Amino acid sequence: MLLTWVRAIIVAVIFTLPVGAARAEAQWYYTGFLGVMTENVWYEVFSPGSIDFAGSGLVGVGLGWERPIGNSRFSYGLELQAVSHFGRQDHFEFNLPVVLRYRPENPVLPRLHSVAFGLGISHATKIPRVEIDRKGTSTRNFVYWMADMEFTLPRPDTSMYVRLHHRSDGYGFYDVSGGSTGVVFGWRKAF
After folding, report:
1. What's the domain count of the chain?
2. pTM check: above 0.90
3. What's the rounded mean pLDDT across residues 130-137?
4. Which helix (H) or strand (E) holds 92?
5. What's the pLDDT tens digit per position in 84-102?
6. Which of 11, 117, 134, 159 sees the fewest Cβ atoms within 10 Å?
7. In this structure, is residue 13 part of a structural domain?
8. Please, are residues 76 and 118 in contact by the beta-carbon 8 Å criterion?
9. So what's the pLDDT on residue 65?
């Protein structure tokens, strides 16, 4: 199953690599982030009074690439993440989502630079304890998705973001029912 996902991602990367004049429009970035795991289903984190923290944190780094879609306000790309968990969990996690990003023309929130959604694969070096405690079972390989809001900072090409960091069975894509949600704060620098 994981090998099939890896092959699909490699094919997607090959077909989306910039060519010719579009190469100048593509952008690389690196990111660092810190977060906390919750006991909640992903949508429950939007009700601050109902968030149950899991006593586990995460810290991660990532390398990303994105490219505008024509003349639109959308871009797409990939973000390779390496994550270390601590607290109730002590494993590493590697994620590779395909990311779709939108940059609003007149944002409602001050300094809002973009909103994004990413979907891909996740591999944990151990079965995550938080996922076992929530559902009784889990697996090392899962679907990964992220959703974030990115805000500009005074320094050029830098931003900060708040993100949902989520691993799940993908509504039955994996035979094991489970998942986990983290709330993450991060910093991003384009180069």
Report:
1. 1
2. no
3. 85
4. strand 92-102
5. 999 999 999 999 999 999 9
6. 11
7. no
8. no
9. 97
> How remote is the C-alpha of 137 from its chain's centroid?
23
Flag whether 50 is in a domain: yes
Please name the amino acid found at residue 6. Answer: V
Q: Indicate whether 12 belongs to any domain.
A: no
Residues 6+ positions from 41 with CB-CB distance below 8 Å: 179, 181
The tens digit of pLDDT for each residue in 38-55 reads 988 888 888 878 888 889
DSSP secondary structure letters along 38-51: ESS-GGGGGSGGG-
Q: What one-character DSSP code corresponds to residue 170?
A: T
Rounded-to-integer distance, Cα 99 and Cα 87, Å:
29
Is the residue at 21 inside a domain?
no
Cα 34 to Cα 25: distance, rounded to the nearest angstrom: 29
Q: Dihedrals φ, ψ of 109, to 5°?
A: -90, 140
Residue 45, CA distances (Å) to 26, 64, 138, 153, 164 in order: 33, 26, 21, 25, 9
Burial of 56 (0-12, 13-18, 19+ CB in 10 A): buried
Distance between first and last Cα of the chain: 34
